[in-house]
Amino acid sequence: MKVFMLGWEFPPHISGGLGTACYGLTKGLDELGVDVVFVVPTAVPVDTSTHVKLQSPATLPLLNRPSPARPARQPDPNEPAAHSPVAQERVSRHIELLQVSARLQPYRQSDPGDQPAIRSPVDAQSDDPAAPGSPNAPRRPEVIEGLPGDPDAPTAAAAQSSSSAGAHYDGDLMTEVQKYARLALELAAHEEFDVVHAHDWMTFAAGQAVAAASGKPLVVHVHSTEFDRAGENVNQQIYEIERTGMHAARRVICVSYLTRGIAVARYGVDPNKISVVYNAVVAANSNVPNVPAPIQQNEKIVLFLGRLTLQKGPEYFLEAARKVIERFKSVRFIIAGGGDMIDRCVKLAADMKIGRYVTFTGFLRGDDVARVFKMADLYVMPSVSEPFGIAPLEAISHDVPVIISKQSGVSEILTHALKVDFWDTDEMANKILAVLRHDPLHKTLRQHGQIEVQKLSWLDSAKDLSEIYGEVAP
Amino acid sequence: MASVVFYFQVHQPFRLRRYTIFDTDTRYFDDTHNEEILSKVADKCYLPANAAIADLIDKHDGDFRVSYSVTGTAIEQFRKWRPDVLESFQALAKTGCVEFIAETYYHSLVFLYNRNEFISQTRRHHDLTSELFGQEPRVFRNTELTYNNDVARVVRDLGYHTILTEGADHILGYRSPNFLYHPPGCEDLHIMLKNYRLSDDIAFRFSNRTWSEWPLTAEKFANWVSRINGNGFVCNLFMDYETFGEHQWTETGIFDFLTALPDAMFDAGDNDFLTVSQAVERYPSVGEMDVPHMISWADTERDISAWLGNSMQANALHDVNAMADDVLASGDSELIHQWRLLQSSDHFYYMCTKWFDDGDVHTYFNPYESPYEAYINYMNILDNVRARL
């Protein structure tokens, strides 16, 4: 079984859970002996050490990759090898990673250096149209359906929706999506595979195109929906892309029954076509360098780790924090993440007069994540709508008890966690205080949580995938 | 022949209301919910089962006998919300074929923590039973049939002649629960052990269609009991009274089974039905039973891990018992009563994190979504109790 897989994130270039999920799933598939060609776009390079060694494009002539299916092509002297859009490496025995030079970077970085201050959709509207490619340019969204027509012709609907394209999207995304799809299509022409597997909406167009061209069945994997990301103010165009992809696919994979419900109710997908494959977690690496002691030794640390955006509920976290602090002063709330709401959160903490109990660390990478887990006494995930939520599993595997929103996919599989409705900040505070004040509760949650999480494995998720592949491509 | 000794436990706790760290009032119990449950159980179980038992007593002219214990908390609830149920038990008492057994008034595990309080709760239950049912209890059973050698000695010193407990395999070894025993150095106290296989056939497996013996008819069961003949004196069928109508719904045929059982028993052999005291009068102890560590009738382990299996339970039980001196010294009778209602073993049962074979049983009537919620709720209430001292 060989899978042509399309994603937009793969470690080390991650900005959210999708990269972690793709990594875990492909690792599991590798263990099962399923071959995967995984196509990812170039992203902002990150200098973390990793087992994946990227080869420079200059050393790889276009499409001249050794493959068991066909012999290597002689390099064409007229081809500018230095501009090869493809970089590849073999991640493991069965997984091959191909990078195409398209930028699918959906999330606004919060570095003040190269970005203007957070803009609301209203601000974006009042900008003068600048040159294409500048961050202030109006979006150039296009209709993407198997790549017909001129990619530069904006449609009326697209122009209208450009200003409401969520404040959390960055850059000329739709053009990049198109480019990715084109490049993927070209790559696919030189590959043999049994099934096409596309992760999240940005790859759906590519998935549909490749499936149509190759005649192979399409499986789409929904890690999140526009409703999870933007509440009710969905970007109509992205919604259409999601819907088209789900309907075009032979099978729709959702990361939870919560997400499956949304696919049925909001996208009209036939429930019989949907399979739920839960994400898992990689066991924590215990070789984390020692954490320097915090300044206040007896302070309890409550951690929020995630993107600071509407979907993740940081305001509810702060509201609960305020209620906790009224009763318990020896506590510090750490907010580890970046995102479009960061300025608003800093201001909110100040307005609530709890500024000195709250620490903002910005986006954490690599070992810093493990370090902050080691420091934490409690992890809280107050998500408004979380399709799955791998982070609480990571927290538990780092020996940190968790409080999670009931409106999350991961709450379907976790028993040894405290659960709250995201809006119920009284109950959130009630539970935070209970965990901080009662060591037996802390201990029991940790012990049982560890056992529970150790039973989860990406191999099981990969087995589910493998079964689905077998069903759609017998 | 075998003497069938039926013993039924009747108990309802005062379940707690949702109580967060922000709550400050002193109402700890969810009266609405508790009343609802009591009424439901009364209609599905207590009343129809009492009626069935009364009919059998009447029909068999005094040859059908059973034993009960009714906790103090259950009686309080009957008085508050369903006095008709209490009356039906009193009617049973008047038949002369029903024995009432003593236990701790509050269905608590206080024996593990406070000897004086244990004695006080037992005396209170003893007096209540005597007052309501016109009999002085001579038999005792500890909460959830918890038992060890120490319990035996204290109970013997209180004047009881028999104690009930579980016929746990790890205590019995090759021996049979169908005989009577006595504790080491304590020949004047008799131990009656639950035959858990036959008891659980009725209480748990009766309606399980995947059970190899389903359906269980009165004839089949009577034959099994008759096989004790020569190999034992008694067949001790100890169970929760809610078996009849609540754990096993009417539709399963449980009442028909019960009604047919005495006739089937008499037909199958020289069997009879005795109360606990009658059995003890007739049969001698065959030997010593050494129980150094606590046993109980709960879960597959038959130990006390259902209430003391994790550190939350240990902590909660410790904290509530640690308040004893201060609470009793307060002189506040409402506070003292509430503190005792907080000792019912159910509150700690809800905090159990054993999720395996017996997980489902733990969730029955469990008002909490998780054992963690149970613990948090309970400890918030203890905070308030402490603040009143």
Describe the protein.
- The complex is a heterodimer of chains A (474) and B (389).
- Chain A is α/β, with parallel strands linked by helices.
- Chain A has two domains: 2-116 and 136-280 and 463-471, Rossmann fold; 300-454, Glycogen Phosphorylase B (Rossmann fold).
- Chain A has helices spanning 17-32, 121-126, 156-162, 173-188, 204-214, 226-230, 236-248, 257-267, 314-327, 342-351, 367-375, 391-397, 425-437, 439-454, 458-472, and strands spanning 2-6, 35-42, 86-90, 95-103, 195-199, 218-222, 251-254, 274-276, 300-305, 331-336, 358-360, 378-381, 402-405, 418-420.
- Chain B has 389 residues and is α/β, with parallel strands linked by helices.
- The mean pLDDT of chain B is 94.
- Helix content of chain B is 47%, strand content 12%.
- Chain B has two domains: 3-288, 7-stranded beta/alpha barrel; 306-387.
- Chain B has 17 helices and ten strands.
- The chains are: A alpha/beta (474), B alpha/beta (389).
- Chains A and B meet through α13 and α14 of A and α12 and α17 of B.
- CATH fold title of the largest domain in chain B: 7-stranded beta/alpha barrel
CATH topology of the largest domain in chain A: Rossmann fold
The number of helices of chain A is 15
User: What is the typical, i.e. mean, pLDDT of chain A?
Assistant: 78
Helix/strand/pairing class of chain A, anyone? Answer: alpha/beta
Please tally the β strands of chain B and state the result.
10
CATH architecture of the largest domain in chain B: Alpha-Beta Barrel
**Order of H and E elements of chain B:** EHEHHEHEHEHEEHHEHEHEHHHHHHH
What distance lies between the first and last C-alpha atoms of chain A, to the nearest angstrom? 10 Å
What form of chain B results from the Cα inertia axes? globular
Q: How would you write the strand order of the largest sheet of chain A?
A: 3-4-2-1-5-6-7-8
